[in-house]
């Protein structure tokens, strides 16, 4: 499996290392200590041509209509309770609407097929099912849904991506290239134990981002070096969870493990603080 990854000559060493970690760390689960958790959000249908999505908002208190959040899940899809729980709590802590589109259309990488036996097949699947063409169209559908739900027409968005979704967050925050034709703006992005990341991606970023790698994820230094040189470089933030493995806040996390639960809550707090700082309230 790893040989197929190493055979790719177009990958930076950082991106190659990140994919290896993604394909080998931890045992994924659809519940991860959240078996008794009842999500507060619901499944909705986005635009007629778009996918389903998990939509959540704060149960109590004010609801911000000047900005909203989009979440891109990890390779295991929309039905992971740990991911939904994070989205629910993020909505509560930010008082914002949160939408998580089902980019994989009900066909994520199956838990039973992890780790992948064929690295080439896995990479091809990710690059096809999760291509920027697919993701950007779903971001537009999510935005249309948010507008119909009461978000102000000129409101900017923030984006959080887990694992593979961290790559999509970087692209969504690249306003002069990947995100140029979206028709709306992301003002902040968060990559939580992101995978498929490389310094070449950072060159296109145009807004502040927060990076939170796990202990076995590649050093984020090459990305930081590039972002430090940008006008908003000092507004970017970084926090490494040294004691956790890749995927700890999503499908490979277990809320019943004390240190992991604390790390998840720390990541949640940092994410909420970052969005509250960089998005209009």
Keywords:
Rossmann fold; alpha/beta; disordered N terminus; 281 residues; 13% strand; globular
What would you give as the CATH superfamily? Answer: Alpha/Beta hydrolase fold, catalytic domain
Strand content: 5-15%
**Overall mean pLDDT score?**
93
Counting helices, strands and paired strands, the structural category is: alpha/beta
Q: How would you sum up the major sheet?
A: 8 strands, mixed
Low confidence ranges: 1-10
Q: What is the approximate shape?
A: globular
Strand order of the largest sheet: 1-2-4-3-5-6-7-8
- Quaternary structure classification: single chain
The CATH architecture assignment turns out to be 3-Layer(aba) Sandwich
Kindly report the CATH topology: Rossmann fold
Number of domains: 1
According to DSSP, the number of beta strands is 8
Order of helices and strands: HHEEEHEHHEHEHEHEH
What's the gyration radius in Å?
17 Å
What percent of the residues sit in helical stretches (DSSP H or I)?
25-40%
* Number of continuous helical runs: 9
GO molecular function, one term: hydrolase activity
Pfam family, one: DLH
Protein name: Carboxymethylenebutenolidase, variant 2
InterPro entries: AB_hydrolase_fold, Dienelactn_hydro
């Amino acid at each position: 499996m790893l040989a197929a990854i190493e055979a790719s000559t177009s990958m930076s060493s950082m991106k190659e290392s990140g994919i290896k970690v993604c394909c080998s760390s931890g045992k994924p689960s659809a519940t991860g200590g959240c078996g008794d958790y009842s999500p507060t959000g619901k499944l909705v249908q986005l635009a007629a041509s778009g996918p389903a999505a998990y939509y959540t908002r704060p149960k109590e208190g004010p609801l911000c209509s000047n900005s909203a959040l989009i979440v891109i899940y990890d390779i295991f899809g929309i039905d992971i309770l740990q991911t939904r729980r994070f989205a629910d709590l993020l909505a509560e802590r930010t008082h914002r609407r949160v939408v998580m589109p089902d980019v994989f259309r009900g066909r994520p990488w199956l838990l039973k097929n992890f780790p992948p036996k064929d690295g080439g097949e896995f990479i091809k699947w990710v690059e096809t099912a999760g291509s920027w063409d697919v993701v950007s169209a779903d971001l537009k559908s999510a935005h249309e849904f948010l507008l119909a739900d009461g978000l102000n027409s000129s409101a900017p968005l923030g984006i959080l991506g887990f694992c593979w979704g961290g790559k999509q967050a970087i692209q969504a925050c690249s306003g002069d290239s990947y995100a140029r034709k979206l028709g709306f703006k992301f003002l902040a992005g968060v990559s939580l134990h992101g995978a498929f990341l490389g310094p070449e991606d950072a060159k296109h970023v145009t807004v502040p981002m927060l990076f939170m790698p796990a202990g076995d994820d590649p050093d984020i230094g090459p990305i930081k070096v590039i972002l430090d040189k940008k006008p908003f470089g000092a507004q970017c933030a970084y926090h490494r969870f040294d004691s956790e493995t890749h995927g700890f806040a999503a499908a490979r996390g277990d809320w019943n493990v004390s240190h992991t639960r604390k790390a998840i809550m720390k990541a949640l707090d940092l994410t909420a603080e970052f969005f509250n700082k960089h998005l209009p309230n």
